[in-house]
């Protein structure tokens, strides 16, 4: 059945929801998708009528540029359901702005704000049963844009597809993680696309990360490609370092993703009277702080993981273990974030967005 | 119709070739594809039975990792037809080795040599009418591997698809081109994936290249990301500089593609008594050589373009024009390359591979 909504989105609903076949207590991150998806194609220099249709495979030409030149950008967002059954997003405008920033760097057209918010809202209304209440539950939302032009010359596509797919999620990393500080491999170059959520940034990390994983580390903390001296980000997360009672995180640059969680953590820390120092931090300083006992915590911050406490890092074949501390910033800031996201506390910065 | 060949490739032929609908005098690079394509899927930890089927669109899950994380690598090769109607490849073993080197860096499985050569040979035999004789005509061949696993966690795919598609081609750049030397943007980082034909390397260049194109330059010559002082490559081509009678090209590194054309040009230059200096070359040296008249030529070298003479470069808002010279190395080396590729001259290095 097809109905025209007042938002001019064509909606075709699935006859029978697949939700009863899903075990929500046993979800693998990013493998289960909701009943519907949002699609909007860019053709003839404009975005066409957006559609919401049943989640399904799609037809692609083998020559589509996304397969050959990685012209693709994405976002990661989450929806939360409060105890009254209302669904909330967290700072969606930041994701909207960033996907267009990413798109611009990859020579792709901006997606209209109106379509983004109306599409997202309508999709979440239709699939709201997939957002489970309770802290730890969320619906992971993946907007993305891919180049669909069937031509293999190495130049920007004429045609694109914007999509939103949604996947019910539990916590991403459940235990504390150990990380390896990069000494040889790099994530991004100055003047490159590291600040963008460009698809190719992620595949480039898989191999060095797999080497780290074989040695028992879950993630790599990337350092600057030129010197490997400055700590930058962890690929799926920004990174915070607590030395004494100050929280330090690297400034954003064209190599580092401007994370929504990072930005929120900085604000919440300041709200809670924690000094935040946004400045370059070196491997030398980190190791010295670990040796003299002033390094109290390291944690990652990102939409998928929210906050991931780190238990140890390795550099120069030396393992540095973090102390187990009471009143950790990671725990209190994570709790603070989740309470705002799940509508359990005041939202004084206006970060929640009701569906 | 499906037939099993002795190579254990399943072959399904198109009933009626599309070739009569193609105007071979008016081809846009990479938009027209031959009647068939080669497909081999990686599932359950192994490459499945390869297939040759009619060229067609394919079904992909929206969650396929290639769309989200750019886990994709490719190669560019060409087939040539001699006056006796025999089809030749040029150093295909180099492309085979490189796609696996690229795949390894992106945490993708190696493709078996047997499948690569048998698949390529059979596909070119079936579609041999698409390879037109004569210098300037060729069949561009695009092997590529994409991550097909329907899961959006940021980790390597379990499933992949290897494909070969083919597109009849004329010369890529027909006129001399003007290039801009990069001062702000970068192509790759030390420790990154610049040496690999990774999909994401190309999308990352589209925006800075489009800025250059708006100002009348066809390509960018990338410099090292750390200092922007050393000349590296042009994104779709390696670059050669002739100062007096010496040909200079940057050494390969983890930032620079190890081009098959580059390697062949170095050999052919040496065969012809031209001194080749493989060493870092700086922007300062290039500008100085241009000013004092010792800079005679710059040209790009790559499979798509073969050799592309460059007429001018800009750096620091200053335009440096190359002289028009007789007996250019670009012209003689290009002629030499084409004669070998088209079986018009002796192949003393054993570069030709007959189909």
From TrEMBL, chains A, B:
Q: Which cofactor does it need?
A: pyridoxal 5'-phosphate
- Which keywords are on file for this protein? Amino-acid biosynthesis, Aminotransferase, Branched-chain amino acid biosynthesis, Pyridoxal phosphate, Transferase
Q: Does the keyword Transferase apply?
A: yes
Answer whether the UniProt record assigns the keyword Iron-sulfur to this protein: no
Cite the PROSITE patterns for this sequence: AA_TRANSFER_CLASS_4
The EC number of this protein is 2.6.1.42
Q: What protein name does the entry list? A: Branched-chain-amino-acid aminotransferase
Q: Which species is this UniProt entry from?
A: Gelidibacter algens
